[in-house]
Amino acid sequence: MFRVGLGHDTHRLIAQVPLVIGGIRIEHDRGPDAHSDGDVLLHAVTDALLGATGMGDIGEWFPDTDPQHAGADSSVLLSQVVAEVHSRGWEVINADCIVFAQKPKLSPYKQAMAQRVAELLEIPADRVNVKAKTGEKVGPIGREEAIAAEVVALLQSRAE
Ligand code: CDP
Ligand code: ZN
């Protein structure tokens, strides 16, 4: 059996905060306003897995009211969900991702992000694709007020 999951995440951008996307540190003059490290891509990947397996959403698993998750490394949260997904008999086939950011230019980082996401999903690197889109200078993305990510993931039951 195959199941598809969709993940989305948005973070407001604020000055002088480290920007980490897909587990990769990116040089920039602003970063996410977030309880955790605010990694939009890893949060969207996590939600895609939770969606495909009918396990709810990231806020249910890791409430942002929980002081334990303050400044949390999102790769640790994703790894916990991957372990749960595997224990329920699912494996990830592929993930296709879009990061929405007016700046900075992400093309130099896309391959590293895809590799890191694949590593966290425990699948070969060629099964993760990362795309980037500007906001064409309009809306909250285009005005550099926010960054966002969307991810679709396909999972297969290990039983078949
Ligand atoms: O051309 P189109 O309007 O569809 O897309 P765009 O959002 O203007 O992005 C054009 C190119 O810039 C794409 O190849 C993106 O991967 C790249 N890009 C990037 O490197 N970094 C961003 N923050 C946004 C887009
Ligand atoms: Zn988030």
What key phrases describe this protein's structure?
five-stranded mixed β-sheet; 5 helices; 160 residues; binds zinc ion; 60s Ribosomal Protein L30, Chain: A; alpha+beta; binds cytidine-5'-diphosphate
- Ligand types: cytidine-5'-diphosphate, zinc ion
Average pLDDT reading: 96
Order of helices and strands: EEEEHHHEHEHE
The total count of strands amounts to 7
CATH topology: 60s Ribosomal Protein L30, Chain: A
Q: Distance between termini?
A: 7 Å
The number of helical elements comes to 5
Instruction: State the share of residues found in helices, binned by percent.
Output: 25-40%
CATH architecture: 2-Layer Sandwich
- Radius of gyration over C-alpha positions, nearest whole angstrom: 15 Å
Strand order of the largest sheet: 4-1-7-5-6
In total, how many domains does the architecture comprise? 1
- Describe the main β-sheet briefly: 5 strands, mixed
Tell the overall outline.
Answer: globular
Structural class by secondary-structure content: alpha+beta
CATH class descriptor: Alpha Beta
InterPro entries: MECDP_synthase (IPR003526), MECDP_synthase_CS (IPR020555), MECDP_synthase_sf (IPR036571)
Family: Belongs to the IspF family.
Keywords: Isoprene biosynthesis, Lyase, Metal-binding
Protein name: 2-C-methyl-D-erythritol 2,4-cyclodiphosphate synthase
